Amino acid sequence: MNHLALQALSSDQEPIIALCTPRGSGAIALLRLSGSHAIEIADAMGRLASGKKLSDSPSHTIHFGSLVNPDGTTIDEILFLLMKGPKTFTGQDTIEFTCHNNQFIIEHVIACACAHGARLARAGEFSKRSFLNGKLDLIQVEAINDIIHAQTEEALRRSMQQLQGSLSYHLADVQDQLLKLLALTEASFEFLEEEQRDFDMQAHITTALAHLHTTLTTLQEEFAHQNTLRQGVTVCLIGKVNAGKSTLFNALVKKERAIVSPIAGTTRDSIETNLYKNGIFWTFVDTAGLRTTHDTIEQQGIDRSHAQAEISDVVLIVIDTSTPLSEQEADIYKTLLQKHAHKALMVLTKHDITHPHFSLSALEQTNSQTLPPLYVCAQTKRGIPELEAMIDTKIQALFAHLNAPFLLTQRQATLINEIEKIVDFIEKKFIHTVEYELVAYHLMQALEKIAELTGKNIHEKMLDEVFGGFCVGK
Fold it and tell me: In what side-by-side order are the strands of the sheet with 233-239?
């Protein structure tokens, strides 16, 4: 490979190589080489069994051959997938090598490519080139990262819809509304004051602004609830010491994860375990038991229990039925039920040894938003399937109001918030004084934010931040 020719290339044209599959044991590994002179480099790296050159072969064809070291020794027998630009992911000539998944082979492939003029790809560089070459807009490229890291089936589905353009379509609608508003506003410059009154210009602009504001607010509300969809749900168990939380926790996660002991206060810090259920990751958290204590370490655990309940999606309030509720316990449970009513489930443990004087009368009128209390016996697993069904009902309720066919990143949500603030400012200003030049100026600002969202107007530094979160092979 002519290294002088390579030196004349811009960084976005340079041939780059990276491993695309995860490192570790496995049958095969896939490496991608893309950029100017990529096919020429691949020809220099290996020999096809057919005796032909990749450069003489048609695009989108697979070839069997060997990869060889500069000294002529064989590295591995591999498959070459030849894809000539622009009909590739990056828009550039691309070769994908499929070899045996051995760390030494992988390193030899990379070293061999670099010896012939390629360099190791940076994080997200293949996706960045796809964006720069107009294969995908920035919104779609970010969806690829979400697809890779999706922790729920619903997040995966929505990320795939986003890759296919669902969010880009919504933003195109916002842009269209802004452009129509701008056109209407600029047209007002040409109207005489009497003509504006006849056309009722102010009413038209006010209505259009209100509709746009509603669209943006809906997008923001979606983002506020999408973390659960993206990362899965957290279910915490909270209650007094020795209420049977750890036994219940073990029953729910199907293994002996928490220490079970008759000694009160055994769990002093949170313990968590993940389960994959119904297409969603459920993270169960067993928290320290609640009681009045002078032990500093135990008190820290209790404080963390309350903090965990605050951030959890479902809160299992675990109540021991083997003893009557004391006044202090009733007050604790009342507070928990009032604070977390919309996400709480009341779980009554030790149902097999329920005390004859146990009663929930002290908690009446505090559980109006929760499902009915459920009696369980964690040791015999009685009531556990019913409890899992109730948890699932709570989880489905979390997702019920999320209707948008996409997931927003923090970058996207921040820019949408900035656009909403601009529209809100125009609305409030417009009510008091009709200054069409000022309205037009701020509408142009909002349109610039839309361009930044889709990547049509974005700084190189911001691009580096976006793609820096990608894996190297993507």
Answer: 271-277, 280-286, 233-239, 314-320, 344-349, 374-375
Local mean pLDDT, 10-residue blocks, the chain (474 residues) = 53 92 89 96 94 95 91 90 96 96 94 94 92 90 87 85 88 90 77 53 81 87 77 90 88 69 51 86 88 67 84 92 86 87 90 84 65 86 92 85 78 92 85 75 91 80 71 71
CATH level 3 topology of 140-225+407-454: Four Helix Bundle (Hemerythrin (Met), subunit A) (1.20.120)
Tell me the whole-structure pTM to 2 decimals.
Answer: 0.71
Domain with CATH 3.30.1360.120 in the chain: 3-132
β-pairing, 16-19 with 28-34? antiparallel
Which runs of E-coded beta strand occur in 329-409?
A: 344-349, 374-375
- Structure-token pair, residue 431: 């009510």
Alpha-carbon span 129 to 217, nearest angstrom = 33
> Collapsing DSSP states into helix, strand and coil, what is residue 316?
strand
Which pair of structure tokens corresponds to residue 152?
């729920």
Q: Which residues contact 29 (CB under 8 A, 6 or more apart)?
A: 19, 21, 98, 99, 100, 101, 102, 105, 106
SS3 69: coil
Cβ atoms of 253 and 316 within 8 Å: the answer is no
- Spatial CB neighbours of 106, under 8 Å, sequence gap ≥ 6: 19, 23, 29, 31, 99
What is the CATH topology of the domain spanning 236-392? Answer: Rossmann fold (3.40.50)
Task: Give the whole-angstrom CA distance, residue 213 versus residue 58.
Answer: 52
- The correct answer on CATH 3.30.420.40 for the domain covering 3-132 is no
Burial of residue 142 (number of CB atoms within 10 Å: 0-12, 13-18, 19+): buried
Residue range(s) in the chain whose domain bears CATH number 3.40.50.300:
236-392
d(CA 387, CA 352): 16
183 by DSSP, 3-state: which? helix
